[in-house]
Specification:
The protein is mainly beta and 317 residues long. Helices cover 6% and strands 38% of the residues. The chain contains two helices and 19 strands. It is elongated and about 85 Å long. It starts with a helix and ends in a 9-residue tail after the last strand.
């Protein structure tokens, strides 16, 4: 064995292992039965996402149950086959981070050449999840208006959450706080929350959130308000679990820009003249395959430029 190969193996062996469990993935589970409701043992299932080259196989146990664990968030096509039954294909099975999609399958007697296609629908209640959680998907991240493009502010759309950013400002005598997350869960102070990006911790000791990824690079994130699963058990508040976007078999990307300029906005009522206030945010993304169906890349860049005035009171009682 070459010395460089031995050195690479030794370096990998020294790296710490971070158990991510299902923190940055979801799963599909369910049971396969016949028309009478009896379990079908040994049914073969396949979950695929062709645009990302994902293919997973599963087989039902003696109770007819199956599970696809640790699936990256996205939409899947699930095919179910069993001897003596017509295959069924479920389209648009949407897996979200931290969630379990329950897929009940009832096969009809038929030939292998006969395929029954079904449009999958997410259950109204997730019976596999104990925690109170809300998922902010890509559609809401990209379509809802938000100031300064801080996507974590969307967490305030979840019940039992509030902002903690206004507790101390520049016009009072209280000691300024060290950085905190800015989000209160159930009346918390914003310091006991956990933040994860693709299963990796992303917070500082005071409870603040590290600068991480652009909003354009976020696929979705889940807000767990309480009773989170074991991998988030250290958090005394809530947890925010962020999943970044991935490349696919097609090249794609975009350019974007947002501008607020002093020349096209009103003067502050207490300002004798229109003060400087110009904010521009611009960036770009690009993603695609490095090796089709095997390896992908996705890159995002964003820049924020601010020219603003701050009102500071000189005389105070």
């Amino acid at each position: 064995m070459k010395p460089m190969t031995i050195l690479a193996i030794a370096a990998l062996a020294c790296l710490p292992a971070y158990p991510q469990a299902q923190s940055n993935a979801g799963e599909i589970r369910g049971a396969v039965t016949d028309a009478s409701g009896s379990a079908i043992r040994g049914a073969r299932l396949q979950a695929t996402a062709p645009d990302r080259g994902i293919q997973r196989n599963a087989q039902t146990d003696e109770d007819g149950e199956f599970v696809f664990p640790l699936l990256p968030p996205g939409r899947y096509r699930v095919r179910v086959e069993a001897q003596g039954f017509a295959p069924q294909v479920f389209e648009q099975v949407e897996v979200r981070v931290g969630d379990t999609f329950t897929l009940p399958v009832r096969l009809e007697v038929g030939e292998l050449q006969q395929v029954i296609e079904v449009q999958a629908e997410a259950p109204v209640i997730d019976s596999e999840r104990a925690q109170q959680a809300t998922t902010i998907d890509l559609a809401r991240i990209t379509q809802l208006p938000i100031n300064r493009r801080n996507y974590l502010d969307f967490a305030l759309l979840s019940p039992a959450t509030a902002s903690t950013q206004d507790l101390v400002d520049g016009t009072d005598y209280r000691v300024a706080q060290t950085p905190q997350s800015g989000i209160s869960f159930g009346g918390g102070n914003g310091r006991g929350n956990g933040f994860f990006v693709d299963g990796v911790e992303n917070y500082i000791n005071s409870g603040g959130v590290r600068l991480s990824v652009s909003q354009e690079a976020v696929q979705e994130f889940q807000i767990n308000r309480n009773t989170a699963s074991a991998e988030f058990g250290w958090s005394s508040g809530g947890t925010v679990n962020i999943v970044t976007r991935s490349g696919s078999n097609q090249f794609h990307g975009n350019f974007f820009g947002f501008l607020r300029h002093r020349d096209i906005q009103a003067r502050n009522y207490f300002d004798p003249q229109k003060s400087a206030y110009t904010r521009s945010q611009a960036g770009a993304t690009v993603g695609g395959p490095l090796r089709r169906d095997r390896t992908f890349f996705f890159s995002a860049y964003e820049r924020l430029d601010r020219h603003e005035s701050t009102f500071v009171p000189i005389l105070q009682d």
